[in-house]
Design brief:
- The protein is α+β, with helices and mostly antiparallel strands and 135 residues long.
- The protein has helices at residues 17-24, 27-33, 59-64, 106-129, and strands at 6-13, 38-44, 52-57, 70-81, 87-97.
- A 3-stranded antiparallel sheet has the order 1-5-4.
- The longest helix is centred in the C-terminal third of the chain and has 24 residues, at 106-129.
- It is globular.
- The mean pLDDT is 83.
């Protein structure tokens, strides 16, 4: 990755870190709770540390992403407990542009991280509406 091409952001969620991990580490659960965003998710490994997860966006979601500018991106998310039934998702997105240029514009960075934040809010909404699932 090109040095300096990184975005960080935090997102407060009204769901426990444990439930968010259960969804995030299960391909079926993530696809189910975020219907329409992913076509599939493949996990190489046991889903724990060191596993590689590949998400395939739906055509609609891909069209809405920072399209055509990125060669690659690596996303890290940590869920930290923030009280009963609450957590903070801490994102770090590192990326490399196709043209080899530096950082995306502030607007494109906001769009890129905004997609991840929106995904977490979709999962949060699903889990709040279905409190027994992934408990």
């Amino acid at each position: 990755m090109v040095a300096g091409c990184m975005i960080t952001e935090d997102c407060a969620l009204a769901v426990s870190a444990d439930r968010m991990w259960k969804v995030s580490c299960s391909g079926d659960a993530l696809v189910k709770t975020s219907a329409g965003i992913f076509d599939s998710m493949d996990v190489e490994g046991d889903g724990g540390p060191g596993s590689v997860t590949t998400l395939t966006l739906s055509a609609e979601a891909a069209a809405a992403w920072v399209n055509g500018q990125l060669k690659s991106q690596v996303t890290e998310v940590k869920f930290e407990a923030a009280g009963d039934d609450a957590c903070v998702a801490k994102f770090k997105v590192e990326y490399e542009r196709l043209d080899g240029g530096g950082a995306l514009t502030a607007e494109d960075q906001a769009e890129l991280i905004g997609g991840y934040l929106a995904l977490m809010k979709i999962v949060e909404t699903y889990l709040v509406a279905n409190p027994a699932e992934y408990a």
